Amino acid sequence: MYPAVKLTGFAFFWYNYFVVCVVLAIDEFVRDIAETAQFVCVCFQSAHTQTIFGGLVMKGSTIPFDGTPEQEKQLREKLSELKTKEGALMPAMQFAQELYGYLPFEVQQIIAEELNVTLADVYGVATFYSQFSLYPKGKYQIGICLGTACYVNGSQAVYEKLQQLLGIHSGECTEDRLFGLDATRCVGCCGMAPVMTVNGDVYGKVTPDSVEKILAAYSSKEAR
Ligand code: FES
Q1: Which of 21, 114, 207, 217 could connect to 79 by a Cys-Cys bridge, CB 3.0–4.6 Å?
Q2: 117 assigned to some structural domain
């Protein structure tokens, strides 16, 4: 009798242990899915600036292109050096991004012409890899964390307030290029959630009201 009771207790313990592990794994999985879905929504929101360019409907900046003739000369020289090489598209786009800070439509078209590929090919690569940006960065680049700890502490409301104040979505920058906005994942300061960064400076426990004051401080710095 005694060994049977012992065996039942042992089985009961391991059964409960197994159930707890499964529940924790499911919980983690659901959190990951929720965070990713949140992020995908943010990315889709920024698709509102679509432009028809070179016969393609392309997502990108509506801020006028201000590339200089010197930049174009440098780009074309680099492209003519690369075009005989295999797999030239990625290094060409990386060079262009470094040169301009982003990949506007006009630059994508130059790359397509010089490398003898279609604009759709260039645009496809530019939108597939996160290292490429279709929007210029702001002088003050704001990051609002939508990671789990920040999200449960109200970062979505702060993000909405920033969008409303700046008139832009994640990945975009204001017409005067003063502010850029990025919705980010965890930036490693969860104890201060919700967290906002401006050019790497960290602001913790931000609220929709406090971000208005933070932005005003940066704007007034420019006005001086
Ligand atoms: S979740 Fe925002 S800093 Fe970690």
Answers
A1: 114
A2: yes
